Amino acid sequence: MSICHAPAPGGPETLRFERAERPSPAPHEVLIRIGAVGVNRLDAMQRAGHYPLPPGTNPVLGVECGGTVVEVGAGVDGIVPGTRVAALLPGGGYAEYAVADHRHLVAVPADWDDVQAASVIETFCTAHETLFELSRLAPGERVLIHAGGSAVGSTAILMARSIGAEIVATVGRADKVCRLREWGIPHVVNYREVDFADALREIYPDGVDVVEDFIGPAYLARHVSLLRWRGRLAFVGLLSSGSCQVDVAGVLLKMLQLRGFTLRPHSIAEKAAVVERFRRRWLPELTDGRITPAIHAVLPFGQAAEAHRMLENADNFGKIVLRI
Description:
- It is a single chain.
- This protein has 2 domains: about 1-120 and about 265-324, Medium-chain alcohol dehydrogenases, catalytic domain (Quinone Oxidoreductase, Chain A, domain 1, Alpha-Beta Complex), CATH 3.90.180.10; about 125-260, NAD(P)-binding Rossmann-like Domain (Rossmann fold), CATH 3.40.50.
- The chain has 11 helices and 15 strands.
- The chain has helices at about 40-50, 115-120, 120-135, 150-165, 175-180, 195-205, 215-225, 250-255, 270-280, 285, 305-310; strands spanning about 1-5, 15-20, 30-40, 65-70, 85-90, 95-100, 105, 140-145, 165-170, 185-190, 210-215, 225-235, 255-260, 295-300, 320-324.
- The strands form 3 sheets. Strands 3, 4, 5, 6, 7, 14 and 15 form a 7-stranded mixed β-sheet that branches. It has a 6-stranded parallel β-sheet with strand order 10-9-8-11-12-13, with helices on both faces. Strands 1-2 form a two-stranded antiparallel ribbon.
- Helix 8 (about 250-255) links the parallel strand 12 (about 225-235) and strand 13.
- Helix 3 (about 120-135) packs across helix 4 (about 150-165).
- The radius of gyration is 20 Å and the shape is globular.
- This is Enoyl reductase (ER) domain-containing protein.
């Protein structure tokens, strides 16, 4: 089978296609023939050498896919070959076949293609866990969502809108401002034109309840100042580097909660619980068409390097998917 990986850290041009043996499922796993794979920022970070892999992780890129089960392990019940699925992977998704724990996949509707299946599970799991499990966003609360044109950011906006939260989103391009306003999001800030904190204070002088933070150190001090009493912040990404000074007194006096999240290091059982929450809460919304996530581009597998360039240049609004 064909795989795509980065044999040495570097830019998108370091990606290489090679032949490899088809994997075999362990007793608790299934083998999936991959039709499409979602492209995620952690793929680019791993390629560049900035994402240390958990011990024993498959070094081939790709942590989510859409495809068809072709073989099941001896200990797997309730899943049969021919089932079309969306799956979280421990790695190995940039390939024609991959294995996944049977609890880390969901059967998809018959009218979905593999691109749709590959575009949702990692993104929706991350957005749900950070917005609702960690930050406990409730209807009517105010939420600041950065990276509003990214796959996770745009999904978080759709989720927050669906429960009736009040949203302020940030993006770095005028076309993305327009796209979000077409979605009915009235408060969209282009952070390249104005300071997002100043703009937010004009909208909500007393601040917000929740921050979905993809940025990290560069914004943290401002986030602490913008959060209201018992506000919550979830670190979802790290688009800035270095360290920062934080008003710890502000954190204490407002009783703020600052929590970090990354999905990949979760245990098998923890990931199973995450996937089950996605299945129960959001798969019905997707199936019924109440939420339609943005897919920016679908590229052939051979253009994986172009997909990474597109992602790193922030050209995308929504998900980038490779069709295998």
